[in-house]
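Fill in residues.
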């Protein structure tokens, strides 16, 4: 049995988990975290002033991610979850090298779940242009299944459709069928929803793919991975009181408040706007 690493002396198990995303979509990960780890406090940062990250260069996404993680560390977090697939793809390695707390991304947990779910070894990945171009999911899937065939497809219109609340209807069904045709033709049997927004389109994606395709929601897998990492570092909370959840954004909190429920599954009570310096 491996011996659990000790926490850094200055980090309290009562400290919150830091979570960040380019905007609102990371609330799908918060929702899974709250479900899997109901005793843990959370500080969430959504970079609503600079969303989307999907089309931005790796250097820019890394710079943004560094700025946000410094802010979360200043708030005393004990672990950071990179809830954004694009930020995970471009910045996870750098953040893990540089930060004094454990960092969990969304790509590896999703990739592992896809490997488990696939019997044919033909796995599809959908994500933003940045995530797909980075090849991060392919690499992570091949770690678990070196012979897997991975077919990736960027679906850039999915993010604005979800933001606008277009979760079904003829237009979104048509776009999904167009995007997903190459994956359907190559008969994948597992499909990673490799973007924070895509779990909200799961029913549309399932219809476009047809039966027999397992859809992998990285959010749930990431929450389980977070639990394992907390225990491995002896950082799981021992508090029994109701934890606090704080929501911070870099632009107008009103839109975040209005849309948040769709992603979080419950109402957001308070969102604070703060400047990143
Ligand atoms: N959060 C991003 C992701 O999961 C999607 C939105 C964006 O492009 O910033 O990749």
């Amino acid at each position: 049995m491996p011996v659990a690493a000790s926490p850094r002396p200055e980090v309290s198990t009562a400290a919150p988990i830091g979570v960040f995303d380019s905007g609102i979509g990371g609330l799908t990960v918060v929702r899974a975290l709250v479900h899997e780890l109901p005793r843990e406090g959370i500080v969430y940062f959504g970079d609503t002033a600079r969303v989307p990250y999907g089309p931005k260069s790796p250097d820019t996404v890394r710079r943004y991610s560094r700025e946000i993680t410094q802010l979360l560390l200043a708030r005393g977090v004990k672990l950071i979850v990179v809830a954004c697939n694009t930020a995970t793809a471009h910045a996870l390695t750098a953040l893990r090298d540089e930060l004094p707390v454990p960092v969990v991304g969304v790509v590896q947990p999703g990739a592992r779940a896809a490997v488990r779910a696939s019997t044919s070894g033909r796995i599809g990945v959908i994500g933003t242009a940045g995530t797909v171009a980075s090849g991060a999911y392919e690499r992570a899937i091949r770690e678990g299944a070196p012979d897997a065939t991975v077919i990736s497809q960027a679906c850039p219109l999915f993010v604005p459709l979800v933001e606008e609340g277009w979760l079904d209807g003829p237009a979104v069904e048509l776009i999904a069928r167009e995007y997903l045709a190459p994956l359907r033709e190559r008969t994948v049997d597992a499909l990673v929803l490799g973007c924070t927004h895509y779990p909200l389109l799961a029913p549309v994606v399932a219809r476009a793919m047809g039966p027999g395709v397992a859809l992998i929601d990285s959010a749930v897998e990431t929450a389980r991975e977070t639990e394992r990492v907390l225990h491995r570092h002896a950082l799981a909370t021992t508090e029994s009181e109701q934890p606090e959840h704080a929501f911070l954004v870099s632009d107008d909190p009103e839109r975040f408040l209005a849309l948040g429920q769709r992603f979080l599954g419950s109402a957001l009570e308070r969102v604070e706007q703060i400047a990143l310096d």
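Residues 21-23, 25, 51-54, 84-86, 128, 131, 159, 195-197 surround D-glutamic acid (CB under 6 Å).
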